[in-house]
Structure formats: structure tokens, C-alpha cells
Amino acid sequence: MKRQRQGKKILSSILTSVLAVALSISFSVPVFAAGAITGSEASPAMAAIRKVLQMPSGSTTPGATFTFEFAKKSVDGFTSDEYKGTMPAITDKQVSYASTDTGTTTGDVKSVPKEVNVIISGEASAFPHAGVYEYRITEKQTGAYTINDAAKEALTYSPGAYDIRFYVKDNAAGTATYVYAIGVTVVTVDNSGQTADAKVDPTPNTGGGLVFTNTYTKFGGGGNPEIPENQILGIGEKVGGDYADRSKYFTYALTVNKASLVPGTPVYKAYVVDTTNNVVTTAANGSISNDTFGNYIAVTSGTSTTIKLKHDQRIVFTDLPIGSNYVAVETGETHYTPRVTMVVDGATSFNRTATEATDLSTGPSTANAGTVLVGEKANAASFLNTYQTIAPTGLLIGNLPFIMILLVALGAFILFIIVKSRKRREEYPARARLGAAE
User: Fold this and answer.
1) From the DSSP assignment, how many helices (H) and strands (E) are in the chain?
2) In the predicted structure, residue 26 carries a pLDDT above the cut 60
3) Running DSSP on this structure, what letter comes out for residue 321?
4) In the CATH scheme, what is the code of domain 32-218?
5) Which residues on neighbouring strands pair with residue 169, listed in sequence order?
6) Whole-number Cα distances in Å, 79 to 29, 82, 179, 328, 364
7) How many CB atoms are located within 10 Å of the residue 258 CB?
């Protein structure tokens, strides 16, 4: 019995020793999550925050500076203040933008990506001992950009949050530490392409997944439609020709499409103004609503709206986001030849004329197809409908073929009378001589 007890004690001691060794190995050799990036003593692991500022095409990049904050979470899995007190502070990192940043445009979205390293050289060597240090990275939700008029600009901050782990080792000499590996996990998704708890690759200059996306939207004009500087888009009607009817209304099918970065299905206001920019919208122009500036026609994004204009009237918008697009199709009218001149983002884009009584569109293609961008500068479509020339005789040009037929017939009749009279004169002397001979 005594020997059995001694054997059990020896076996228990061996198992305890093995377990202690295993635990010490598990603490001394960190297990990396999938997606972690590694380095070496000579070239420590590095990670970058990727900032993507998006805006509708046609927008100027705002002069904004975004700030990223690092909150201490744990050391080797321990979350007490005592342990977190040993963690080095990682300074806020910033990404700045300027109006000269052009980025790239895909569809109707302009994207300007930039990067900043998560830690700088001094911070990388500041970890006091080997271990796993975990921080949470978020974007500061205020102060990136000063918006003076909320009716004209909007900036959304990224909701994204990430946990970043630094796997720190001692150097070969045992005199300092270095970052051997970095792993990043999504806590709160930044965009629809992410899922919570997923691992992302923060490798610099690779379009990495430690990304914060912001959206900037600028609205044209805003406010009182009678102030020309507030009018981001105008579509005008004029008639020409001595006999043009200035009281006649011409019909337009107008469709305005919001920029894809604008949420929901917005409804925009189209005011009809005269040559002095007074609001003159009436039921003759379309289905009207009313606000403090007067009557307007509601235009739902993506839906065709019928609007009618007469000579020297324009519809103007003050609330369209930059990057919207539109198309206006004027219905052709008998005896009128239409022409349109387009101004897009401050520059004359094209002039186009259709044949009499034919529909004419603001579409940029010669087939009247497509839509037109609403840029930050002036945007306008000016239609001119010229009445056909009328001869002062009062005879309509359309009756000219019948008149020509009558003239030809009258000429033939006159020629017939002349020929017949000549024959009679030639026959009369002959008959006189014949009578005298008898």
C-alpha cells in the first residue's frame, strides 16, 4: 500500500510539472489569429489606417482633418487598470485633405483614399515587455471639418471600430522589444463589405481592411430661389420669330436623379421665376405646393414630372445635391423649331437644334439620350423655340404647291389664248384674198 501511495505521488508530480511547462509555453508563445501580419527584429510589423473620403462626382474635396483615437483594452488578456497602466499610450493619428485632392471617380462617386501608420518608430519600441497588447481604434466623431451652413453641406463620420493586437517580443540581445505581429478584428462594421468579428489585413499600401469611410455631400445654393447665387440649376424657355406666341406654354418632362450617396428618395422644389427672378409659379406651370418663398412644383427623385413654361420663364432649384443628374425633354410643337444650349458646371457644354415639331432633350448624346451632371458651378438648359417664317403676302408656305399648280394652269390658259388669236390673224388675210378673187 505504501509503495502504491508513493507511485501515485510521483505520477501526480510528473503531471503537474508537464502542465506547468505547457502553460508556460502557451503564455510565452502567442497564438496569432488568421490575418495577422508578421515582421522581424530588423523589420517590425507595421499596420496602417486607411481613410476613404467619398463624395458625389463634381464635388470639390473639403479641407478636412480626421482623427483616430486608441483606447487601452488589455495586456496578455488582463483588463484591470493595474495592467492597462503598463501599456504605452498611442498618440492620435490624423489624415488631412485639401481641395486639390482629386481622387478617382467610379460611376457618380468620387473617392479620395489616404493612409496613416498606426504606430510610429518611437511608439513601436515603447512596449515595456514582451506580451500581447490590445487597443480599440475609433474615429473621433467631431471637429474634422467646420460646416458653416448645414443646409449646404453635410459630413458623416465612420461608425467603424476595430480591436488591434500588438504581439511584442524581446530582441535577441534582451535589451529592447519590437512588434513581431499585428492582428486586427472588426468590432463595428465600417461598410457593407464587412462583418463583425471578421479579421482584416492592415498591411500598409495594399488597400487594407482597417478602413474608415466618410461621406461628404454639398448642396447647391439653398434658401431663397429669388437670389441668383442660390440657383444651382435653371431650365428656361424663350420663343423667337415675328409671329411667335409668347403666351404659349411648352411642355417638359423633367427627371432629377439624386446622387447615389444621398440616402432615401428626396423630393426637390422647382420654382418658376421670371426675368427678374421673382417667383411666379402658378397652376398653369404644373401641380403646385407652397412654402415661405411662394409656389413650387415638387419633383421626386427618379420620377418624371410634367412642367410647363412660357416665354421668359425658368424653373430653378436651390436644394439639389452636387452630383445629381437630370434630363429635361421638351415636347415638339407645330411650326416651332427647338434649340437648347447647355451649361454644365460653369462651362457651355453643347448646343443642339431639332427639326420643327420634334422633341428635344438635354441629354448629352446626339440621340437625346442620357442625363446631365449638376456641378458646383452654374448649371443651365436654355431652350429657344423659333416660329416658322411667314411670307408677307399672307400666303402660307404650306399652300405653295397648290398655288404653283394654279399659276401653271393659268399660264397654260393664257398661252392657249395667245396661240389661238395668232392663228385667227393669220387665217383672216387668206380669206380676204380668196373673197376678192371670186
Assistant:
1) 4, 25
2) no
3) B
4) 2.60.40.3050
5) 178
6) 20, 8, 20, 63, 62
7) 21
Q: What are phi and psi of 399, to 5 degrees?
A: -90, 0
Cβ atoms of 193 and 174 within 8 Å: the answer is no
Q: Confirm if 278 and 314 have CB atoms less than 8 A apart.
A: no
Task: Specify the pTM.
Answer: 0.76
- DSSP 3-state percent helix, strand, coil across the chain (nearest 5): 20, 40, 45
| Superfamily classification of domain 228-387 | Collagen-binding surface protein Cna, B-type domain (2.60.40.1140)
C-alpha cell at 150: 448645414
Q: What cell does 414 get? A: 393664257
Could you tell me where in the chain the CATH 2.60.40.3050 domains are found? 32-218
Residues of the chain with CATH 2.60.40.1140: 228-387
- Residue 431 half-sphere exposure toward CB, CA atoms < 13 A: 6
Residue 189 CA to residue 115 CA, distance in Å, equals 19
Q: Return the SS3 of 128.
A: coil
Task: Enumerate residues 6+ apart whose C-beta is below 8 A from 365.
Answer: none
Distance of CA 395 to the CA centre of its chain: 54
Which of helix, strand or coil describes residue 319? Answer: coil
Which amino acid is it at 292?
T
State how far the Cα of 62 lies from the Cα of 155, in Å rounded to an integer.
10
Q: State pLDDT tens for residues 66-123.
A: 999 999 999 999 999 999 999 999 999 999 999 999 999 999 999 999 999 999 877 8
